[in-house]
């Protein structure tokens, strides 16, 4: 095994010349319709201010089996992509687990439910049936944050603890905007062919280039050095896998300063570090999902595509790139339809208070952090009434079974709006808490906020501006890298998130009110930026904040202790 390799940079032949070898077609290897039968997945249709919800994660194990997290049905579907007609195994999750992400390592089925939880088959059962079996899973233990490989695996797609709140709220960070570029990032990966490895992602030559150095965790032997360079600016860079042929796979985003044609791809490198080509991921016109790509031991790249009537598991086509120094990602193959803008005028008189970024962020954190007691009157009857269109109860998941307990965060409530003081007053008067029945008419007897009501309240707006109306009071931010705390990522007619900051590895940390990503409340989440832009989210700035001189650090928490498993690389190895 080599100890040290020469960096591979190939000179481009002619100014602006890029190799454009033909990409193999994407292939649908398995489809699942919407429903609750064994070969179906739970799909909750989209509506006004509600994005379509369905399976959130696709992952592979060492034997080549694929796993789909069907969290709406409370289960995981396991199948062999090379046997598309065989019935999948149905792995039923424990009732108290409501995950948003899924990773399989060896015999461990790990899910993210605010932290890492490990599941296994109940006694007398096996998850290796692949014969259409229904298997009950039970929790082994909640893995600690010191499990670097598990924590780093979930962080690949943004399932990670958000940064410290004090970085945005502390007095010292209000004085000036702190502009920082990408920070060195250490990742821990349980690979197929080399066991557990460490990958250091090292900034190199500006915003469009990084170096990736891979070493084994046991012997610290250098086994690969990769160079990644795109035309514009890199977003997320995640080392994914080493397949059974010792090839390296890296997930990367290219995000031009215009914000247009943001793309996500997987780069494949030979065992000697030479770039072989890329897999361009078809993110456009798809709802937001968490783990949308996975790599098998054979080197097949699979993509999770959610549709209104089900999902498709897509084998992504490979595009060879020979003798190329700069990866040239092509524009989206399917153009995103332009969103009609409402003919509304901004009226500053709707603001209930003078608004600035500091107040916006403080209000957002107050919605997330409020502590309140869930009384029987707030909880309602049990079992609760079912939502139209699917077997769900009205009550947000995070409140289930918590009657007479202290809970945290304002619940998601379809069609509800109001200030934090209004929410507390209604809860204390015995109003029902939260409503996730987004296919039904909004209810007047329930308290909480939906996605756009939360952003409206954070901005200090006294009326509820829906995602379709937000363009009337906010202007687009032409360069997504210019987003500041208190701005938003808005998808008109679908969903909106309040932007907080960029993480050191260039993901977007947001605050949102969501049925799926937050299990029915206001919470913080981290997402790869290009996956939001490609899916139609538009960076916007509330017009009352446009000239705000109260500044907050947009990316200022590398000085704090990073979560275990995702560390800033302090030195080269």
Q: What structural category arises from helix and sheet content?
A: mainly beta
Low-pLDDT regions: 1-20, 174-178, 333-349, 555-563, 568-573
Q: Helicity range of the residues? A: under 10%
What Rg, in angstroms, do the CA atoms define? Answer: 23 Å
Principal-axis shape equals globular
Tally of extended strands?
33
Work out the oligomeric state of the chains in this entry.
single chain
Total of DSSP H or I helical runs spanning 4+ residues: 7
Mean pLDDT: 85
Largest sheet: 8 strands, mixed
Write out the strand line-up for the largest beta sheet, numbering strands in chain order.
Answer: 3-4-5-6-10-9-8-7
Residue fraction in strands = 25-35%
- How far apart the termini lie comes to 16 Å
């Amino acid at each position: 095994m080599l100890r040290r390799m020469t960096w591979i940079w190939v000179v481009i032949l002619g100014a602006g010349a890029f190799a454009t070898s033909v990409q193999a077609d994407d292939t649908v290897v398995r489809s699942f319709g919407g429903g609750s039968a064994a070969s179906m997945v739970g799909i909750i249709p989209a509506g006004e201010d509600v994005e379509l919800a369905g399976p959130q994660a696709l992952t592979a194990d060492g034997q080549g089996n694929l796993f789909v997290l069907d969290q709406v049905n409370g289960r995981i579907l396991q199948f062999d992509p090379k046997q598309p007609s065989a019935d999948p195994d149905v792995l039923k999750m424990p009732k108290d687990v409501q995950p948003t992400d899924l990773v399989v390592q060896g015999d461990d089925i790990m899910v993210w439910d605010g932290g890492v939880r490990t599941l296994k088959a109940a006694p007398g059962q096996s998850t290796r049936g692949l014969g259409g079996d229904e298997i009950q899973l039970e929790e082994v233990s909640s893995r600690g944050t010191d499990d670097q490989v598990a924590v780093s695996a979930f962080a690949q797609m943004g399932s990670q603890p958000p940064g410290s709140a004090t970085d945005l709220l502390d007095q010292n960070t209000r004085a000036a905007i702190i502009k920082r570029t990408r920070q060195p990032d250490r990742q821990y990966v349980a690979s197929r062919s080399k066991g557990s490895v460490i990958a250091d992602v090292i900034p190199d030559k500006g915003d469009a280039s990084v170096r990736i150095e891979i070493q084994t965790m046991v012997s610290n032997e250098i086994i690969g050095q990769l160079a990644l360079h795109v035309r514009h600016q890199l977003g997320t860079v995640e080392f994914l896998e080493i397949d059974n042929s010792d090839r390296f796979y890296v997930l990367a985003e290219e995000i031009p300063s215009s914000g247009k044609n943001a793309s996500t791809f997987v780069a494949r490198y030979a065992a000697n570090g030479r770039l072989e080509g890329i897999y361009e991921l078809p993110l456009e016109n798809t709802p937001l999902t968490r783990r949308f790509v996975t790599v098998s031991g054979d080197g097949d790249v699979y993509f999770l595509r959610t549709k209104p009537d089900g999902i498709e598991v897509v084998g992504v086509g490979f595009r060879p790139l020979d003798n190329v120094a700069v990866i040239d990602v092509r524009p989206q193959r399917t153009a995103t339809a332009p969103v009609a803008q409402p003919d509304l005028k901004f009226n500053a008189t709707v603001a209930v208070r003078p608004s600035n970024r500091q107040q916006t962020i403080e209000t957002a954190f107050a919605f997330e952090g409020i502590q309140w007691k869930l009384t029987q009157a707030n909880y309602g009857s049990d079992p609760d009434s079912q939502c139209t269109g699917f077997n769900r109860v009205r009550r947000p998941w995070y409140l289930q079974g918590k009657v007479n307990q202290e809970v945290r965060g304002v619940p998601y409530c379809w069609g509800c709006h109001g200030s934090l003081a209004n929410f507390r007053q209604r809860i204390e008067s015995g109003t029902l808490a939260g409503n996730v029945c987004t296919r039904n008419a909004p209810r007047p007897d329930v308290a909480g906020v939906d996605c756009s009501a939360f952003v409206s309240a954070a901005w200090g707006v006294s009326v509820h501006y829906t995602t379709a109306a937000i363009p009337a009071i906010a202007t687009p931010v032409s360069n997504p890298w210019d987003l500041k705390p208190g701005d938003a990522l808005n998808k008109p007619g679908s969903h909106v998130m309040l932007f907080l900051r960029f993480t050191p590895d260039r993901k977007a940390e947001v605050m949102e009110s969501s049925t799926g990503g937050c299990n029915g409340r206001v919470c913080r989440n981290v997402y790869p930026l290009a996956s939001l832009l490609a899916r139609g989210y538009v960076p916007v700035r509330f017009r009352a904040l446009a000239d705000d001189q109260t500044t907050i650090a947009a990316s200022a928490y590398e000085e704090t202790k990073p979560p275990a498993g995702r560390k800033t690389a302090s030195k080269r190895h």
